[in-house]
Amino acid sequence: MRRWNLIREDYLDFGPTLAREKLIELHRISVAKETLRQWMTEAGIWISRRERKKRVFQPRGRRDCFGELVQIDGSHHWWFENRGPKCALLVYIDDATGKLLHLRFAGSENTFDYLHATKAYLQQWGKPLAFYSDKHGVFRSTHASEKDRTSGLTQFGRALYELNIDIICANTPQAKGRVERANQTLQDRLVKEMRLRGIDTIEAANAYAAEFIADFNARFGKPPRNPKDMHRPLADHENLDGAMCRKEVRTLSQSHCVTTRCCSFSIRPRFPDLWPVRK
User: Fold this and answer.
1) Which CATH superfamily includes the segment(s) 65-242?
2) What is the pLDDT of residue 253?
């Protein structure tokens, strides 16, 4: 009886192994681990991992329109098997149709390659209403400001903000299941297709990506519930090259120089007479 009182009062959420250690260490009570496991199971205190119910996620329906929501993710994998190095595949998939819209192989998930891939995506399709991603450091910053919306954005988030494209960060991998399932299919089909073609470099894989996308979409793409395409063209005032780049704020010195990292740049005025003299 003393044992059960101890377990119920102090070790109710402990597993049998840890509970046994504490019974011996703190209370000088010795009992076999499997015996304790059986007792705790019969008493309903312990449930084995196999019998535990998996967390149930409510399925989220597809969006209605093409280009309404585009899921993006990076998948690290041995895409070239033993023929080349491990790398990342940046995947863009439409939520409404399940169609691959862009693929880019890169050495890793980094801001530069995401900017490069997104620029190519926008040039081909236009601007979606929103991108849906995980909370990778490329997409989400932990240093947000309540006063200035742009001050807490990453370089990628800032670029999308300038182009009036929303970015939504999912809380769980299950929330962006469309792209997660696509990654599993790609790790099977795409790997085998590249093996058959002897592709073993990032450059060759990126050159083949368009052919694979066309075949994938023909096999697995679905028509949207609403035929309207929500992609928007770039506005006249929107500069794609000016947005899809790295930007940093620097202070101009009195000698009209800007220093960044290990470099110093001298800014020459176009109209020197109009520049104010700093005192």
Assistant:
1) Ribonuclease H-like superfamily/Ribonuclease H (3.30.420.10)
2) 77
